[in-house]
């Protein structure tokens, strides 16, 4: 192989024209571009470095004859032409001492004007294909008093044809060089960003930075031939691969055949494959969508296997597709870079060869180990933002980090779990969707699964400040539909549903996309795209904001079941079959839905239940049978919660359709007694005996469940701060989206707790559940935990007041499993199980305060599944205590945000009341004592119990022993919100809320989230008449209860020392909610 002479990259050649002149002298006959011949398409033609050099001289003469005028003027290139001519045009303008600014013709006229103004450009080079856009730009600029000159660019034959040179018999005279030395800090070129978050940014490239790009990006040396035809030359990656790489190495790249004056070939997966194969490329670089398309053709996959590497960038590739290709032997590499920072990765180093093994970590790129210019900033949830720092040998174009010459990319990455310096991009900070629940979705990988469908041209997830996400999908033209055609819409949703299910399987449960939440675009409103053809998220959501709002209102207010066929028959068999099919489609797993098992133990949550109920009502309404249609009006809001198995649902629906078939229901107290009997049977006697006395020197080893919630994270923080605790095991439910430690860090970050504390070597974060055999741990882990643990703090529990008692049975069984473990231990194990004051919802106020002892009558907890489940738990612990197990029920009241941080989760009733009050313009005057307990005080109390030497009480009521008043809370809220928020009687506040309760819009529901739990606030208003709101946070039961705290104070020194809450507590809550953008004051 005739190897080209490589130019020196030591700075002796400072400009791109100088490097091209080197090739003109040393490699004049070496090809720069390969492409299919125009004359014989099955053969390969080329353009040499010598021909390109001469073309740039011609163009320089054309754009600046005799070097007239000032150096450095910016010349915008707004054209739609071939790569070869475009490359010559850029370098020709540079040779003329001017500053080229290649621009995408896909930009709007407003975007082009913005870019022209930011760099002071008044001159555009273009041609007929973009003349219309240029005229719009000239007109808009003229209206601002700025004249913009348009010049027709030279054509391919004029600039580049070697035949033209032969015809003339002479070569073009060299363009005169500047007599002045190059100032390396002046701009040699501008390239614009994609404009995905607004107008494109003009990114300057100084001569120094351009030289550094060339020095840093010798992609595989001189032995590689890239297929680069999929990239536009005006894009940073296109410029890098089509100009920078060849000039740095003297090698050639394959491109499409020049078509000028006709429009250029539009890049398509099939033609990129064909040209790459014809031109004998050893590597290709393409957007992920091309790889998705290729993966469906075995012929193309077989070709890809022969390449050294297939590089993708500009977006994520669906994991399933990448894994499928690498399993077949395709070498994939993930590229990363941007116009602002260049290419900080080492993806090109150690260029892959066909003899290299396929890399299973293809989705990661390698960051330079210990590099001075790379910083990873943790985001608290296992993700990191990349920041690039400018150094002497690595200049960046823009700085956006205060006080530093650095650029924060806003790109989010996850590190490889075991291999250092490998990072996988997962999205952007500004793409993160924050649901109204506070959960955060990084949508890139779900979108990647869906766009992998050959039916889909583009998609964007949405759902900010909503309860559930949706996705906006643009079909490919060949599959375009009228989205108002319900039959066609249902068919399209069904066709892409397999891809959506793949996306859901790879995402956390809260990010699940339901079929009803697929919004299809209009033919006349295509998704806006950036120059690199990616969808511009912000603009797309703005274009479809009305349709998105309407979709949420439809979901909220109706039970339309487009595309959902009703049952084949309305008997037990037909209903159970249909209900099972629907339930299966609403969970994110393939495990078959069991007929007799609680749906909430099979992956259902409140959102799934809502969609399930809507589908049931829609099916009833679509029936031709009058009694069936009428039954739709009798379906209660809690249908699925009250009848949480398929068998129960079928029976309940039959009972509504035909009341004579309804079975007699057992009483709620019977269900409570049944579970108590079941889970207190045969509790073993504790092997360690009843007595317990520990010295201060005894080792404390704690197992904590539920360490990522409000209470659990504060307990964990205080355990980590206590040096007398020797080891801490945390047990949290397995998650596909993040490892346990990452979720704990996210919880700490969310609540203002010290994240560094989680790096303590005493902490072991485990994934498992007490409901599983051996907690879901392997034998070694399980033996380690059981062999050392002295205290179990069981805090994990589903907090959902809609669930029926039986939906908690697996969690109740988990408590019994913990009792058995404690009983079997050879040394005393203290069980501290979080209960709830809701076990006393029905306690008669006439009997005085609720005692710190077992409540014998199940009627006090009946009527609500959550409270009843905790009542059952207390009876299990009582029975265990009789057998010598050291068990304590921590009967938790309302926990509120600490004074220091104010961190109070935004899904609870008090922040919801406050946000709604801001929208209503007034706050409610509630009555009675406020005995809420700050979360930091809860954490301190658990430390007291962990360090206690003597036996703990059986029950402690964790409410504030020194209550404050609602007036104090109101003064704190108003001090932070503003005195303009008046205080009105709670009934008046409720009346103002009720005005919006009839068919509220989606926007109103966001502003007034109290409408979603208006029944709770109605009960709150009624309870306020009895002059007590201390129970307001806990449930929808009575709020006129007080609680004994003698055992609490006896067992906890910190509780004995606690001071009443003051106005500053409430002020801290508001500051926290405002910082989370939950409360936005106008």
Automatic annotation (TrEMBL):
Highest taxon in the source lineage: Eukaryota
MF GO annotations: phosphopantetheine binding
Sequence ranges assigned to domain Polyketide synthase-like phosphopantetheine-binding in this UniProt record: 575-657
Keyword Phosphoprotein: yes
Protein name: Acetyl-CoA synthetase-like protein
Keywords, sorted A to Z: Phosphopantetheine, Phosphoprotein
InterPro entries (alphabetical): ACP-like_sf (IPR036736), Adenylate-forming_Reductase (IPR051414), AMP-binding_CS (IPR020845), AMP-dep_synth/lig_dom (IPR000873), ANL_N_sf (IPR042099), FAR_NAD-bd (IPR013120), KR_dom (IPR057326), NAD(P)-bd_dom_sf (IPR036291)
Pfam families: AMP-binding (PF00501), AMP-binding_C_3 (PF23562), NAD_binding_4 (PF07993)
Residue ranges of every copy of the Ketoreductase domain listed in the record: 700-901
């Amino acid at each position: 192989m005739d190897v080209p002479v490589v130019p020196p990259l030591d700075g002796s050649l400072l400009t791109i024209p100088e490097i091209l002149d080197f090739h003109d002298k040393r490699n004049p006959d070496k090809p720069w571009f390969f492409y299919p011949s125009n004359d014989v398409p099955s053969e390969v033609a080329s353009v040499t470095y010598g021909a390109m050099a001469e073309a740039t001289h011609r163009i320089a003469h054309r754009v600046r004859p005799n070097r007239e005028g000032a150096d450095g003027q910016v010349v915008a290139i707004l054209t739609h032409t071939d790569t070869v001519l475009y490359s010559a045009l850029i370098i020709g303008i540079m040779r003329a001492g001017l500053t080229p600014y290649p621009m995408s013709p896909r930009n709007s006229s407003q975007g082009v004007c913005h870019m022209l103004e930011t760099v002071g450009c008044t001159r555009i080079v273009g041609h007929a294909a973009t003349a219309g856009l240029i005229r719009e730009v000239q007109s808009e600029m003229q209206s601002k008093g700025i004249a913009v000159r348009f010049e027709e660019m030279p054509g391919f034959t004029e600039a580049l044809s070697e035949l033209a040179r032969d015809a003339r018999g002479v070569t073009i005279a060299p363009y005169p060089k500047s007599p002045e030395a190059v100032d390396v800090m002046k701009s040699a070129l501008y390239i614009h960003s994609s404009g995905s978050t607004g107008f494109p940014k003009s990114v300057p490239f100084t001569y120094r930075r351009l030289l550094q790009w060339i020095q840093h990006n010798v992609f595989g040396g001189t032995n590689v031939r890239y297929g680069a035809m999929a990239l536009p030359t005006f894009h940073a990656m296109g410029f890098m691969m089509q100009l920078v790489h060849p000039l740095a190495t003297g090698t050639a790249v394959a491109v499409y055949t020049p078509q000028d004056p006709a429009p250029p070939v539009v890049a398509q997966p099939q033609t990129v494959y064909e040209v790459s194969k014809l031109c004998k490329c050893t590597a290709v670089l393409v957007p992920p969508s091309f790889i998705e398309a290729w993966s469906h053709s075995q012929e193309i996959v077989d070709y890809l296997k022969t390449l050294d590497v297939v590089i993708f960038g500009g977006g994520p590739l669906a994991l399933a597709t990448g894994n499928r290709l690498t399993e077949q032997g395709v070498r994939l590499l993930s590229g990363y870079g941007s116009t602002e920072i260049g290419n900080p990765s080492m993806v090109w180093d150690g260029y892959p060869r066909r003899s290299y093994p396929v890399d299973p970590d293809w989705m990661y790129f390698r960051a330079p180990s210990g590099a001075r210019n790379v910083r990873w900033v943790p985001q608290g949830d296992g993700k990191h933002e990349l920041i690039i720092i400018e150094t002497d040998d690595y200049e960046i174009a823009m700085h956006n980090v205060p006080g530093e010459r650095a650029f924060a990319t806003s790109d989010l990455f996850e590190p490889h779990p075991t291999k250092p310096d490998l990072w996988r991009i997962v999205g952007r900070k500004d793409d993160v969707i924050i649901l109204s629940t506070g959960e955060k979705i990084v949508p890139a990988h779900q979108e990647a699964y869906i766009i992998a469908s050959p039916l889909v041209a583009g998609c964007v997830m949405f759902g900010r400040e909503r309860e559930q996400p949706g996705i906006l999908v643009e079909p490919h033209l060949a599959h375009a539909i009228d989205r108002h055609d319900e039959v066609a819409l249902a068919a399209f949703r069904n066709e892409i549903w397999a891809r959506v299910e793949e996306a859901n399987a790879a995402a956390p449960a809260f990010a699940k996309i339901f079929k009803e939440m697929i919004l299809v675009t209009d033919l006349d409103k295509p998704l806006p795209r950036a120059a690199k053809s990616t969808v511009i998220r912000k603009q797309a959501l703005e274009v479809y904001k009305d349709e998105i709002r309407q979709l949420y209102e439809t979901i909220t207010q109706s039970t339309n079941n487009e595309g959902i066929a009703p049952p084949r028959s309305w008997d037990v068999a037909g209903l159970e079959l249909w209900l099972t099919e629907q339930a299966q489609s609403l969970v994110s797993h393939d495990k078959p839905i069991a007929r007799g098992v609680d749906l909430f133990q099979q992956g259902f949550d409140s959102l799934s239940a809502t969609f399930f109920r809507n589908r049931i009502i829609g099916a009833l309404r679509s029936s031709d049978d009058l009694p069936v249609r009428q039954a739709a009006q009798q379906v209660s809001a809690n249908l699925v919660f009250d009848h949480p198995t398929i068998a129960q649902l079928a029976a309940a629906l039959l009972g509504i359709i035909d009341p004579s078939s309804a079975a007699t229901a057992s009483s709620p107290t019977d269900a409570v007694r049944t579970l108590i009997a079941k889970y207190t049977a045969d509790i073993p006697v504790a092997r360690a005996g009843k007595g317990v006395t520990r010295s201060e020197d005894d080792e404390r080893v704690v197992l904590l469940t539920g360490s990522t919630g409000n209470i659990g994270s504060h307990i964990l923080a205080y355990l980590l701060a206590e040096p007398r605790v020797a080891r801490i095991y945390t047990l949290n439910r397995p998650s596909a989206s993040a490892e346990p430690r990452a979720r704990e860090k996210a919880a700490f970050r969310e609540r203002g707790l010290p994240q560094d504390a989680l790096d303590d070597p005493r902490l072991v974060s485990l994934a498992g559940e007490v409901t599983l055999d051996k907690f879901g741990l392997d034998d070694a882990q399980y033996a380690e935990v059981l062999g050392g643990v002295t205290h179990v703090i069981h805090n994990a529990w589903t907090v959902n007041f809609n669930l029926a008692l039986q939906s908690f049975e697996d969690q109740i069984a988990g408590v019994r499993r913990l009792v058995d473990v404690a009983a079997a231990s050879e040394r005393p194990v203290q069980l501290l199980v979080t209960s709830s004051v809701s076990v006393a919802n029905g306690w008669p106020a006439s009997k005085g305060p609720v005692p710190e002892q077992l409540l014998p009558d199940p009627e006090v907890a009946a009527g609500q599944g959550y409270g009843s489940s905790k009542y059952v738990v207390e009876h299990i612990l009582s029975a265990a205590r009789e057998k010598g197990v050291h068990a304590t029920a921590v009967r938790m009241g309302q926990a509120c945000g600490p004074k220091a941080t104010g961190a109070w989760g935004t899904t609870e009733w008090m922040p919801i009341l406050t946000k709604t009050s801001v929208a209503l313009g007034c706050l409610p005057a509630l009555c009675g004592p406020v005995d809420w307990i700050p979360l930091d005080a809860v954490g301190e109390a658990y430390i007291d119990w962990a360090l206690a030497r003597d036996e703990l009480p059986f029950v402690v009521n964790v409410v504030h022993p020194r209550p404050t008043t609602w007036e104090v809370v109101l003064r704190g809220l108003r001090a932070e919100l503003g005195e303009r928020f008046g205080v009105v009687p709670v009934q008046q506040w409720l009346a103002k809320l009720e005005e919006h309760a009839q068919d509220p819009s989606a926007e109103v529901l966001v502003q007034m989230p109290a409408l979603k739990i208006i029944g709770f606030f109605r009960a709150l208003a009624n309870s306020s008449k009895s002059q007590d709101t201390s129970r307001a946070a806990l449930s929808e039961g009575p709020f006129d209860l007080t609680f004994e705290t003698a055992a609490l104070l006896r067992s906890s020194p910190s509780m004995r020392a606690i001071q009443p809450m003051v106005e500053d507590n409430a002020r801290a809550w508001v500051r926290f909610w405002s910082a989370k953008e939950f409360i936005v004051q106008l």
